[in-house]
Design goal:
about 20% strand, globular, binds magnesium ion, 7 helices, alpha/beta
């Protein structure tokens, strides 16, 4: 089966403006450059996979239906910009949950690897060409564990994270779009044989 390079992208603070625990679609708003960033990955043959910790479910702040509603809005806003996601995975767990269904010391809460493990089992990912973009060190740690090239963006919590961890990621960059442009540049350099003469 043909395999494709993949970019794993954090949601809050990377795709959408950081707004704490988001319990209503009105508070879920993509950064304006996000559709372009995702579209560039789509047109260059990358799988685009969003990974998000949603402990607000486990903590009882909102239900999984709310998470799904936000993800519908995310896909529809991207679609208006000609962009699409290949998959979205979220972790609803938190060990403090009062609901035994969610009070799980799970393997999917970032920086644990469960969501990427699942993506690799479900999608044709070329594991030698994986990238992760996020605004927290938990994203970067996950990327390190799974062999991704890591991008810490300065949106969301990223500026604070970058100040605390100046050498924390392979690349510290302004936002998801600048990260994607670097990924495309690196990927072209890595495959000079595909460049037309
Ligand atoms: Mg984030």
């Amino acid at each position: 089966m043909e395999k494709f390079p993949a970019v794993f992208i954090d949601r809050d603070g990377t795709m959408n403006i950081e707004a704490g625990y988001i319990d209503h679609p009105d508070n879920f708003n993509l950064y304006p450059f996000v559709p372009q960033a995702v579209r560039l990955l789509n047109t260059h043959g990358f799988l685009v996979i969003v990974l998000t910790n949603q402990a607000g479910v486990g903590r009882g702040y909102f239900g999984e239906d709310n998470v799904e509603t936000l993800h519908s809005k995310m896909r529809s806003e991207l679609s208006k910009g000609g962009a699409r996601l290949d998959a979205v995975y979220y972790c609803p767990h938190h060990t403090s949950s009062k609901d035994p269904k969610y009070a799980v010391d799970c393997n999917c809460r970032k920086p644990r690897t469960g969501m990427i493990d699942k993506a690799l089992s479900e999608l044709p990912v070329d594991t030698g060409r994986m990238f992760i973009i996020g605004d927290k060190m938990s994203d970067i740690k996950l990327g390190r564990k799974t062999g991704c090239r890591t991008y810490l963006v300065k949106t969301g919590y990223g500026l604070r994270e970058a100040e605390k961890n100046p050498g924390g990621a392979d690349v510290i960059t302004d936002n998801i779009l600048s990260a994607v442009l670097d990924i495309l540049k690196i990927s072209q350099q890595a495959q000079p044989d595909q460049t037309p003469a």
